[in-house]
Design a protein that fits this description.
The chain is of the alpha/beta class and 459 residues long. The protein contains 16 helices and 19 strands.
Length: 459
């Protein structure tokens, strides 16, 4: 029987089935300070220990400040959550990449860059964007706090098997069009609920041509169309990226691992429950206009008269936009470059290449937040920090930052922010903040121009 990549991974981790639900074994469990405290309290209340502490790795990322991380955290709630994570990890013998640790960073960035994320694994985290790791050909998805407790207690999860979808994108992307534009385009076509109930595999020549960092961006935002997760079959690019990473297999173990990984791609003739196909030639630089990632359009379009979304009219009121309005040329106040979607070194290099020798608009607050300490140190070693500073951008320390309003990095009410993050929900970046999602290139161009522009006109 021909199997998809998803089928191979699900079946290889299936312990048993119970009344239509599957018990799935979990190879890697990532945790952070927001969704783990209740789960730790739950197992302690039940008087049980973690089933396998060595399978869990922790890092504080959501609440942490992105300035002066060598100092004690000043915000009381953030300080309490981070200290609680530290205490729980010490008590239960869980490895933690804490503030100041050379491997500290956003949970979905430190996994791949350290070789913790690998093809063939099952990976979960109490965070929806765990789908990021699927770019390496692993079964990765977000879970709720009660499920975090399940994994703590049993190293397994009780799950309903998702359906499968393959999204194929073929052709060469135009200049100025990035993986962020690809995924925003797909979501705009399928809607924010278009992937509900599915695990998505991305395929086609466009996907194959992408770097691993670009593939992570694609898989990261699978969740924004309602999918359970996203994945891409491992190939030589995957192996090249992982080789010699800190936690990657070494020597003979590496050779054996690659031999296994080569068996994982979907078999020719494997049947998916649903197929969707797109052409790279149809994809242009994208921006969002509403309050979910499905409300997106290419930069040359105007806000549509209607959208298949019950919240469309309400979203325009919140965003203070009109039907038929064009956003190209619209003044903004903030630019945020970072998050688990676009906070990798490749993203920072692209921004630095664009802004070098230019100066941001005077009224713009432009913040660049690396996704990890390793990314930050690489940026500084390559002199990117000097380019950013000369152009008026502020390079901060790693964390989720202004992706969400759970830390000090918030966008003021009623002000516009072009953001490289993954969500534009009401209040996501601060109460009343108005978020416009875009690629790092589009965000950099907006910062320089002081308004939303088509980056293709400037490169």
């Amino acid at each position: 029987m021909q199997k998809t990549l998803f089928d191979k991974l699900w079946d290889s981790h299936l312990v048993k089935s119970i009344d239509g639900l599957d018990v799935l074994y979990i190879d890697r469990h990532l945790i952070h300070e927001v969704t783990s405290p209740q789960a730790f309290a739950g197992i302690e209340k039940r008087g049980i220990a973690l089933a396998n502490p060595s399978k869990t790795i922790a890092t504080p990322d959501h609440n942490v400040p992105t300035k002066n991380q060598h100092l004690p955290i000043s915000d009381p709630l953030s300080k309490f959550q981070v200290e609680t994570l530290r205490q729980n990890c010490e008590k239960h013998q869980v490895e933690i990449f804490d503030l100041g640790h050379p491997q500290h960073g956003i949970v979905h960035i430190i996994g791949p860059e350290n070789g913790i994320t690998r093809p063939g694994l099952s990976m979960v985290c109490g965070d929806s964007h765990t789908s990021t790791h699927g770019a390496f050909g692993c079964l990765a998805f977000g879970i709720g706090t009660s499920q975090v407790e399940q994994v703590f207690a049993s190293q397994c999860l009780l799950m309903k098997r998702p359906k499968t979808m393959r999204i194929t994108v073929n052709g060469e992307l135009s200049k100025g069009v990035t993986s962020k534009d690809v995924i925003l385009y797909i979501i705009s076509q399928l809607t924010a609920a278009g992937g509900t109930g599915y695990f998505i595999e991305y395929a086609g020549s466009t996907i194959e041509a992408m770097s691993m960092e670009a593939r992570m961006t694609i898989c990261n935002m699978s969740i924004e169309m309602g999918a359970r997760g996203g994945m891409i079959a491992p190939d030589q690019k995957t192996y090249n990226y992982l080789k010699d990473r800190t936690y990657s297999p070494k020597g003979k173990d590496w050779d054996e691992a690659v031999t296994y990984w080569e068996t994982l791609p979907s078999d020719a003739g494997a049947i998916f429950d649903r197929e969707e196909r797109f052409l790279a030639a149809d994809i242009h630089p994208m921006i969002t206009f509403g309050t979910n990632p499905g409300m997106g359009m290419n930069i040359g379009q105007a806000v549509p008269e209607t959208v298949d979304d019950a919240g469309f009219d309400k979203s325009l009121v919140y965003m203070d936009l009109q039907k038929g309005e064009r956003l190209e040329g619209k003044t903004i106040q903030h630019v945020f470059i970072g998050s688990c979607t676009n906070g990798r070194i490749e993203d920072l290099r692209a921004v630095a290449d664009y802004v070098k020798g230019k100066q941001k608009a005077e009224h713009i607050t432009a913040m660049i937040v690396p996704g990890s300490k390793q990314v930050e140190l690489m940026a500084r070693a390559e002199g990117l920090d000097k380019i950013f500073t000369a152009s008026g951008f502020e390079l901060r320390e790693p964390g989720c930052s202004a992706c969400l309003g759970m830390n000090e990095d918030k966008v003021p009410a009623h002000e516009y922010c072009v953001s490289t993050s993954n969500r534009n929900f009401e209040g996501r970046q601060g109460q009343g903040a108005r978020t416009i999602l875009a690629s790092p290139l589009m965000a950099a161009a907006a910062a320089i121009s002081g308004k939303i522009v088509d980056v293709r006109k400037f490169i």
